[in-house]
Predict the structure.
Amino acid sequence: MIKSWRLFSIILLLAGLAGCAGVATRPGTVIGPDGAPLPAGDGASADSVPLPAVSDNRAVIALVGRARLDAGAGQREAAGASLERALRIEPRNAWLWHELAQVRHAQGQYAQAISLARKSISFAGGDKRLQAFNWRVIGNARAAQGDPVGAEEALKRAAELDK
């Protein structure tokens, strides 16, 4: 009993540290195939405005923290698995879909990243900032697929939402 409590405490501590670490998979920062952040494309900075909490659910927060640590360490498969588990808990959480879209983009799975970003947009409601983040994922994925026209259109939509 005591050992499991210690393990739980360590996991929560790591999740808390992950939220403070500012790793490349922070919502709104699109990461490239090499794990490095990609530019926003329109001069907007994801760091200029504080981001909301991804969830109020402790299990989801711990899973997102684990995913960010894994993604920052280049373990994108593990990051994706943690985010998929979080989505089983909160399937309508637009921020979780966005985070998974970023991981898939980093894995070079551009079509899936676009699909996941669109799903996030569908759950984003009136959150224009999240919608803009997702359009950046779409734009960067389209650029990586060799579709500069589609990329430009998506990045323009992101810029319009940032206004």
User: Anything to note?
Assistant: Helices lie at 2-21, 58-72, 76-89, 94-106, 110-123, 128-144, 148-162. The CA atoms of residues 132 and 161 lie 6 Å apart.
